[in-house]
């Protein structure tokens, strides 16, 4: 089967398993194995969009078992040049509340054992991740969220933990003491792999809970994460439908040229 072409990709997170109406489903083969699920391809405001739930259609893949390389490569195979990555996330700071959105500008990787590069040699390739999220896409996301009346934080650092367990109270207090705003299990290596392929990437962190270290807050449960995410799915859908047509046709950001000077 000939694959269609898409311009923009969306990875679905916990509680967010479908996006496109009147879309067609495709199985995409990659050199890195199978993606988490078939990819659905359709249109939003006349722009071709590919959607892939990163945990699988039935949420069968925990964070540490996701084939991130296959997922990102599948988007590349479809011609995607920009990816939006919504996530269910915990808050580490009292000013970031459940139901808020955070458009992250930095990450801290606390995962281990995940395959996190396409460049295994023989050409050594070092791609900068100093500013890992696309500045153009972030600006559009913030502008459109504001226009929709969504409480949005225009920047923030997400600390990515291995999972599938949630943090201890001590770990959570440590992360919060560093000034980091968001905690999540899937942002790394997904966003960095996109950069290695010169694909723009924008994170939308949907805050579902306060993490375990917050004083007087009950520890997070998976049921609560999914409940809040589902309650805010309409806001997320509205933002995606506003954001996608607002993205400029041309890319003038650092993401589009990430491999320049990266190979040794």
Explain this structure to me?
There is one protein chain. This protein is α/β, with parallel strands linked by helices. It has a single domain, classed as Nucleoside phosphorylase domain (Rossmann fold), CATH 3.40.50. The protein has helices at 68-77, 135-147, 169-177, 187-196, 222-231, 233-246; strands spanning 8-12, 24-26, 39-44, 47-53, 82-91, 101-102, 106-110, 152-153, 157-161, 182-184, 200-210. Strands 1, 2, 3, 4, 5, 6, 7, 8, 9, 10 and 11 form an eleven-stranded mixed sheet that branches. Strand 3 and strand 4 form a beta hairpin. Helix 1 (68-77) packs parallel to helix 4 (187-196) and helix 2 (135-147) crosses helix 6 (233-246). It is globular and about 50 Å long. It starts with 7 loop residues before the first strand and ends in an 18-residue tail after the last helix. The model has no long low-confidence stretch (mean pLDDT 91).
What descriptors fit this protein?
264 residues; alpha/beta; Rossmann fold; 6 helices; globular
**C-alpha Rg, in Å?**
17 Å
- Tally of helical segments: 6
CATH class designation: Alpha Beta
Share of helix, binned? 25-40%
Number of domains: 1
Global morphology:
globular
| N/C terminus separation | 37 Å
Secondary-structure arrangement, i.e. CATH architecture: 3-Layer(aba) Sandwich
- CATH topology heading: Rossmann fold
Question: Mind describing the biggest β-sheet?
Answer: 11 strands, mixed
Multimeric organization: single chain
**Could you name the CATH homologous superfamily?**
Nucleoside phosphorylase domain
Low-confidence stretches: none
Order of helices and strands: EEEEHEEEHEEHEHEHH
Q: Which secondary-structure class do the elements indicate?
A: alpha/beta
